[in-house]
Prior knowledge:
Blueprint: H1 5-15, H2 78-89, H3 97-106, E1 108-109, E2 117-123, H4 130-136, E3 139-146, E4 149-156, E5 162-164, E6 171-178, E7 181-188, E8 193-201, E9 204-211, E10 218-224
Antiparallel strand pairs: 1-8, 2-3, 2-10, 3-4, 4-5, 6-7, 7-8, 8-9, 9-10
Amino acid sequence: MHTSFAILASLTIAIGACSTPDGQAVTSHDTSTPSRTPATNEGAPSGQAATTPCNTVPDDKPGPNQGGSAPDAGSGSLIDVQARFDELAAATTQVSYDALFELFDSLSPIEPAFMIGEWEGGVFLTGHPGEQQLKLVNWVGKRFTDEDDVNPIISRALNGTRKVNPVLGTARLRSVRYRGVSTATMLYDQHPILDHFRKVSDDLVVGAMDKKGDSVPLFFYLRRLPTAAP
């Protein structure tokens, strides 16, 4: 699939558009107490644009686990986390970062080998600019051939097939500590971006795309596809 340099530039900029309020870059992968913001249009009429920038974090609203101990990973029951996932993924208006961090922290960590295969992807609606940029490249998922051979962007071609899109290059899988827990993480080869994964079920994971310098991640999810999916 042909992708212009303009789309590459816009996608890279959008994913990194949420910077820390003081402009300082994040220097550690162990972000157990990351800054984040609640949904920007809570209480607004449906369809109304958000008015608060994604890097605004009110001082009186600390994020989940902020200033506390490591999150209790995998503490939710399977029924509870599946129901909560379904609710947040089906939302048609922006959901809060509080709710997504709470869901993420309740999920179990996984080993890199768990991610091998083809996955269909979707995003949670938070107002993060990366959501629209992924639409521009017709992103539909990821491909993990092995732990050193990963294609982060799989796009839907005009004929309906899944095609590797080189817009963000390649990646690899490793275990990385994030929010106090080591879990399977996709490290981009050419960008300071890490996608951390937690398990909802054997065929469903939630991901947090964590870019250096951002105050909040892009939350997304992946559903495992059968082998040789079209």
